[in-house]
């Protein structure tokens, strides 16, 4: 089969007769010839392209694409996406294509041919059979005929290619099988066997630039243009010749360009002196000549546009930022797509197996890292806005999904289910808490509990008594606890804990509703502000100026709040700025966040839930506990106002901190600032919502219990801690200790669990409880 094909190729070459050459040369960089019953498509590299280096702009464009593209390695990956180390195809393109040429030079020449001819041919040495593994690769610099087995009128495609004929300069004709030649080309939109060369689009501008350069060269070669004419007035021929001879040595040639030219006045007058005196006339370029010279800049821009090279990449005098942006554009818009075309052809022709995939690895290209950072920032913003699920975001960044399907959630429910919960402080007094893994669902059912309940059921049947269901769940909790009488007493710890669990979800929902409302309104006001160019520019400019000034003064610090210094409602896991008094007024957030309005609105949103917590805490001590009783009503009002103020102040402070960080950061865009603002409310609806709800549930319940017990005549109070690994050491040590009703517990620095006046390190997400001792009546 191979022998017959080679013989057909040789016969086709011997009987070749050109047909339709003129009509097709302008359409594609190959000529077409009819060979008996077969067709031959002959590569005809544009002769003008061989002189492209005469254009400095075209040369630099081709060099920029070829030299940069040649630096990218080819990677062959397996079905799992992992790179296959030491793959022979990757070795050919990255290490040694042949003994005579390095991989860098090989790829550079390959890209140069593609830019100038639109196609390139690579001979693949597969041994004598022509079908073995590729051991070497050689670029073909000679004329190549593409042989097809279908008439041109039937529009042959690559499926009709039966071979190639390489016509060497010494007249040797080398027939080549399709498997032995890698044909790379930039595809033609209307011709399945054609190609488009960027040089074609640039050639007209290069020609126009050459004409301009030739005009300029001829001008200088002829001594340049005269800047003025001196009319010498009336004189005879001998006098004129003497004057001209005297000035010739000083006025002729390029060295004298720009000097004044002496001429004899025309008979009958001529000079400004009417032919009787010496006159001067200024000469300059015509407007047409000036426009022609200016066209050189336009021609250069057109050449760069044709090759896809940004102007700021080659132009002198550009700033570092402009050149950096141009470099990224060159890679993302020009070089990367071209390498993808080449890589896909290599994958198709040299790696026919579906289990292997070849592509150029762009991960090490420094110019693309900024774009990758932008992708990461956009992905992060989408995650914080609950738009992308965790696994979707990881896939966007090239990471595998989280195990067990736990990444099939957006951020808020993911954190609510799986994120660590701050619990007991570390023993080294560091600002850290043990993680709470109790909310992570087990990967398998709790078989031990099922077996235990089954054993209990079997024993009950044998020994008599009620038989518990083997799969029974927990006993449903009561929505509210009520008392049948007004006899004051403290409920057991289990009931108090059950009350906490019932009340906490309502608080979380209330804070999350507040977060959604604030996010909607603040982002709406931000977007409206950004649509006003003058006002937004002034605001952003002031933020940046003040932020940079504060950074230079080095007095303000961005860090998470210290839980030993702030109450629980002021705590957040985001960085908060802290500094000397007065710095807050320099970073203004009033354009997007009105603290007075939001303090009032926060109280309105949270008050119904706080009232429910207080009602539950008071009635668990005395059934007649009344929220409208003046002392209780005043304390409740003060607590709601204080809580609303603390939550609003924290949100405002975090917003101001994000503006400060944005102002200090270099090159952040308006969308990135918007993502920062959005993150503040995502945090409020997630981490802070859980923290506020859990802390205020315990604090409000305990304060109401304290007021009810105090009114009922309690004399002392006892601290009870939940004894598990999350319990703080100080709370565990305080468990069982008793204090007077008007005293604090020394170890916890608290009047009751989750006391809002205690440091956050002692009150945040506390799960302890109080019991009370009452006076006994004398009989």
UniProtKB/TrEMBL annotation:
InterPro entries: Phage/GTA_portal (IPR006944), Phage_head_morphogenesis_dom (IPR006528). Residues 477-486 have a biased composition (Basic and acidic residues). Residues 462-493 are annotated as: Disordered. Residues 659-770 form the Phage head morphogenesis domain. Transmembrane segments: none annotated. It comes from the Bacteria. This is Phage portal protein. It comes from Streptomyces hintoniae.
